[in-house]
Write a structure and sequence with these properties.
Layout lengths: L5 E5 L6 H15 L6 E5 L2 H10 L6 E4 L16 H6 L4 E4 L2 H7 L3 H13 L3 E6 L3 H5 L3 H12 L5 H4 L3 E4 L13 H18 L2 H6 L1 E5 L4 H8 L6 E4 L6 H14 L1
Parallel strand pairs: 1-2, 1-8, 2-3, 3-4, 4-5, 5-6, 6-7, 7-8
Helix pairs in contact: 1-2, 1-12, 5-7, 7-9, 11-12
The chain binds 1,3-dihydroxyacetonephosphate (13P).
The site of 1,3-dihydroxyacetonephosphate (13P) has 14 residues, from strand 8.
Length: about 260
Amino acid sequence: MSRIPLIAGNWKMHKTLSATRTLLAELNQAVSDVEGVEVAVAPPFTALAVAAEALRGSAIRVGAQNMHESEEGAFTGEISPVMLTDIGTNFVILGHSERRALFGEDDELVGRKVNTALAHDLVPYLCCGETQQEREANETMSVVSRQLRAGLAGVPADQAAGMVLAYEPVWAIGTGLTATPAQAQEVHASIRALLADRFDDATAQAIRIQYGGSVKPGNAAELMAQPDIDGALVGGASLDAASFAGIVRASGAAR
Ligand code: 13P
């Protein structure tokens, strides 16, 4: 089964409206001739509508970085799935390690958000990953497995097949430390085995598993050449059109 690589930029808390317009105009141009790679961006909430407008007619997909689990209600400061689809959002990143570590999101909450996203035709990009301490204690797969089993609770196989997972070792996020291709592949293969166990082989083969953590133009090709790495979730390097486009190109060439 061949899975088209998916390169997504998680802009985190960066970019004003004018910076969004500039970056997307540059990016649209920079990747317009690239084939065989799907490209996506997740700007901050304030720039989502402008991004969706700027990318109308483009193949680049637009997503949010988080979402509330309910459709509406008295939840000051939160954004609902209905608001996201209303402005043309295609996907939503859920369970990012920064949400878990800095904003107290637990596995069960992430699972409820995944189900809400699916109910609203938003593609969940479900994130998982271990800390440095957990890796050193040989707990990588027990942590990832716990996060994914809770994150996928109640999700039927036919809906799971359209989802995206992102393996982002916490120690590699924003640190310049990247998992080696072999380290990442080992976890990705274990995740695919977990998916086959949780769903079935065909579903496990259909789900794209991105790697995230200091992906740059210079290391993207060797990561994407691994059989179970189906794309990248890119933080810092997605804030600049040339470096993000460099990752997109390198990924297309590697598959
Ligand atoms: P960096 O690419 O900046 O390490 O961030 C990765 C990430 O957290 C993407 O979601």
